[in-house]
Amino acid sequence: MVRILVIALFLTLSVACASKGEPSLPEGLQYFSVTFAPGTDLGAPGAPLAEAAEYRFSVAIEARGAWGERVTDYAGEVEVSLQGAELRSYKRLKLENGIIGPVEVSFANGFRVERIAVEEIAPDKTVVGAREVRLKTGPVGISAPIYLSYPRISSVQGMVSGDAGDGMPSRLNERNLTLRGAWDAAAGGHRDMVVVAIIEGGFYLTETDCDDYCAVYLYTYSTPYVDDGDYSGVLEPGTLIEEVNGSVFEFFGFTELSFPTFTVRRDAEGRIVKDIGALPSPRDITACLDGGDDDCLESAESSLVTVAGATVDDFDEAEDSWIEYSQFPLTTDGGGIIMAQTVYTAPAFHPEAMKGRRLATLTGILKQHTSSRPSTWILIPRDGADIVMEER
To answer: Do residues 240 and 174 touch, judged by C-beta distance below 8 A?
Structure first.
């Protein structure tokens, strides 16, 4: 009798549940999977992939249902995107039978952690404002992370676009980046960068193992200070820097990092580490000026450079470049021209009284300003010792 009652109760509950309806999962496409070819090296947090001008990966993209199954009757189009890198391969891909691949996805200017993402787009165009666009419909897919090196100063300065007339701006213009030195696989860490000069409400920073496009200006909007307990004061040349963060900005052709923050190297006791021996030797740009070689000069922007055998030209003291900026022209023995500015860093030097005088060498930081005339290049000595007059 008890068994009959239990069976009756079970049947009653079953009918009641069926009448209310079981919750059902959505059918058809829910998301995409983005998978790499077996054995693909994606790097690791402590072992990023080697730096490359372009990265290429073979991937498969599959339409997936609610249980992760492939939706074999799906045919549609997806748009490929990346977190910050520049896509070099096809932007749109079409899936047939719920899959496409293997297909190559390539990109440049990728740093730290990148992921390949896809999102379904509508088959027909929609008018938005004055444009016809393919709207994204919702389903997405994201790959596993790809671990890449941090960007370097040479990444920012060396990836140029445009021509000399517009200052060869960085391809990373307007991107916010955290920069470190080159990855040292043997040491398992990044090399330090070093402060070269502190002038003009900011400081100049360079890599320590670099030949071209090695330096950049960090515009701090005021004199940069540091505090390590034992010392509190102006950031000094030779200070080692672990990393900097800032937004790349082109100021009339001169590449800067604006609103920067920086982390100094500290020893085991927490004291700031300075190494004057890490400062680079000045790069001689006399031949670059003589040949009018803007590519050569661009590669030395913000670097410590020197010019040999230059004469202070005659200049009109009523010109705006002198009145507003205290800039004056120098001409090399080979006919090269460069502007100089000494008023802030070497105020004891009076170029208006030095017209026609020849300098044995002038050393300093190379800056660019595309509105300057007759040259876009300006040399700023660090102090009076950077100006060596020729003996008469």
So the answer is: no
Number of C-beta neighbours around residue 113 at 10 A: 14
Strands 304-312, 283-284: pairing is parallel
Q: Are 216 and 204 in contact (CB under 8 A)?
A: yes
CA angle 76, 80, 81 (to 5 degrees): 150
Give pLDDT, residue 132: 79
**Closest of 259, 253, 220 to residue 377, by C-alpha:** 253
Q: Which residue has the tokens 């068994």?
A: 3
As a whole number of angstroms, the distance between CA 78 and CA 180 comes to 35
For residues 336 and 367, what is the distance between their CA atoms, to the nearest angstrom? 16
User: Looking at residue 372, what is its pLDDT?
Assistant: 59
Q: What are the chain's domains?
A: 31-147 (2.60.40), 153-278 (no CATH), 283-389 (2.40.50)
Q: Residue 212 carries which DSSP code?
A: S
Phi, then psi, of 287 in degrees rounded to 5:
-65, -35
pLDDT at 165: 59
DSSP characters over 58-97: EEEEEEE-TTS-B-TT--EEEEEEESSSEE-S-SEEEEBT
Q: Which pLDDT score, from 0 to 100, does residue 173 have?
A: 86
Residues in contact with 318: Cβ distance below 8 Å, sequence separation at least 6, in sequence order: none
Question: Mean pLDDT by 10-residue block, N- to C-terminus, for the chain (392 residues)?
Answer: 43 49 79 97 91 95 96 96 94 97 95 96 86 87 96 87 68 90 85 92 92 94 82 90 95 91 91 93 96 93 96 92 91 95 94 95 93 76 95 76
What local confidence, expressed as pLDDT, does residue 183 receive?
A: 83
Q: In this structure, what DSSP letter does residue 325 have? A: H
Identify the burial level of 380 via C-beta atoms within 10 angstroms of its C-beta, where 0-12 means exposed, 13-18 middle and 19 or more buried. buried
